[in-house]
Each structure stands twice: as structure tokens, then as C-alpha cells.
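Reading is simple: the C-alpha cell line describes the chain's fold. The lines below illustrate.

. . .
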Amino acid sequence: MTLSWALTDALTITRRSIWHWMRQPYAIIFGLLFPIMLTVLFGYLFGGAMQVPGDSGNYMEFMLPGMFVMVMAFGIGETMVAVATDREKGVTDRFRSMPMASSAVVLGRAIADMLYSAVLLAVMLGFGLLVGWSAHNGLGNALLAVGLLLLLRFAMVWIGVYLGLVIQGPEASATVQTMLFPLTMITNTFADPDTMPAWLGTIAEWNPLSATVTAIRELFGNPGVGGMDHPILLAIAWPVLLTAIFFPLAVARYRRLSA
């Protein structure tokens, strides 16, 4: 089977996902509104009580880079639910019975989710501009920051695909989605880890998401916390490592599914 055949099959799966979104736009609308709601909640309800590191008193500029990262990380749950739903409804088995590349289903899902994530990130960046956030270090650094965010999302896609192929039942799915909240919130997004209890601050500093938050704050020129060496390098290394682990796991798990 040639590479072009596999890519054609993957793009067919991608078009299926896009068509599904067009027929059920409420899921897309909620997905776009949820991070905006979180931004308003944390930024305006709690922002006045937060101390912003550095000279800037603009909490939105401090928080928004972390919110961009959180939105990319929450994609784990969206991908996982979509893959698990197809598997439980027998859609995946029907795909496996067709003469198509074995990796096309997971690759097509990944492409579709990356397209959706790009739209979601564009909406969040636009909303950030409306509420007082801005990028101060030029277009080149801003584009590099966007690239790091999408690289992180790419790694999250493969974690979501793998979990979607592994989990059994809605209870397990709900548990994984619940665990996304501590994963995304115990970071340096909302507060300096130095203000946390020592054990919690250590977890926040070692959370891979914190590296991306620190890196894009630096690239956007937003206020942030110090203490992390080479954040841009870490923001590349962590997603690459996660992709190297979960991409082969996802493809191998798909191939082991019973037809």
C-alpha cells in the first residue's frame, strides 16, 4: 500500500469528521464558548485578587498564554470521546473491514482535530485581543508561539486517540475528562508556583504544560514567572517526546482491535 493511498484514505476520514461537525454544529459552538467562559470566569471573577509577577498589573496578559495552552490540552478529551464513540458504535470496525490503510482512521482523526484546534486557537487569540491581551515581540515570535501551541495540540491528539481506543464505557471516559482539570490547572497558568505549597509548586513546575506556557509568554512578551531554563527548547521537547510515545501506541492499538 503506497503512502499516497494512505494519505487519501486519511483525508477521506478527515472529510467525514468535518461533515459530521457541519451536521451537528452545537458541539463546535460549545467547544468554542467553553474556553471563553473559563477566561471570563478566571480573568474577571478572580483576576482582581491575583498578584501579577513583574511590573505589569494586567492579569489578562499573564493568564491568557496559559489559557491558550489549556485549550490545546483539553483537546485530549475531545479526541478521546470522538474515537471512543466511533469504536463503541462499530464505526471503527466497519472501517477496518474496508480496503484502506490501517493508519488512515487515526491519522484522519488527527488531521481533523488539528484543523478544529487551529480554528479554536484563532478564536481564542481574537478574544484575547478584545479583553486586553496582546503580543509585544513582533510577528515572527508570535507565529513561533502559535507553532508551539499547535505542536502541543498535535501531541495531545495522539494521547486522545490512544485513550479513545483503550477506554471502555462512558464512566471511564468521564473519569479521564475529570482528570484533565488538575492536569491543566496545576501549572503556572493562574499563579506563580512559588506562591503554592512546595510539593504543589514542584508539580506545577514539572508539568509539561508549564514549559509551553512559559515559552509563549516569553515569545509574546507577556508578564510571567521566571526560574525555568530554556523554556522554548522544553516546549518543543515535551510534545515531541509525547508524540513519540503515543503515536506508535495509538497505531498499534488500532491494529490490535478485533474486526
